[in-house]
Amino acid sequence: MKNVFKKTTKGILMVALLATVSGFADEAKILVDKGSKKTALILNDVKKGNQISIKDENGIILYSELVETTGTYKKGFDLEALPDGNYFFLVEKDLEYNTIPFSVEGSKVVFNKEKEAKFFKPFTRKENDMVYITKFSPKNETVSISIYADHNNGLQLRHTEKIVDEQVLERAYKLEKGNYKIVINSNNKEYTTFINN
């Protein structure tokens, strides 16, 4: 099979990616008001369209909303009403998502600050017949890239790559004419991009 991709070692958009990254620990606050049994989630530097969710330990979405205004997000939640178990807030931004884990036991809500985590999404950009993929992996997370091409009304795997121990992933691929599906797996999440070249 003819390899239609040409990998290059060119610096790609890393400055733009890093410019969007800020310290999550400084921008997320949890305040618990025992009198009203409400827990306030306060997030700085959110944008309109960012998503806030509460999920259980199985990943089932219990609550979700899109941020309506850019700036500071503040909302009170009655987390004590949840059944006993483990949960987390998921804050999804343009190129990152953050998890804030907590547990409910009886009428007590406990946040686990040490297990808060920030993960970065890959950024895929097409320019002429080139596709550029960039991803920031501060903990050297494994990243898998699979590129499929439309072939006789079906998808055919044309390229696959597993990247280990790279904090700054930068890849460029030359595409022939056609339709492509790019699947990137990292941090137990899958990101899919469709490209018409």
UniProtKB/TrEMBL annotation:
Signal peptide range in chain numbering: 1-25
Keywords: Signal
Record carries keyword Signal: yes
Name by which UniProt lists this protein: T9SS C-terminal target domain-containing protein
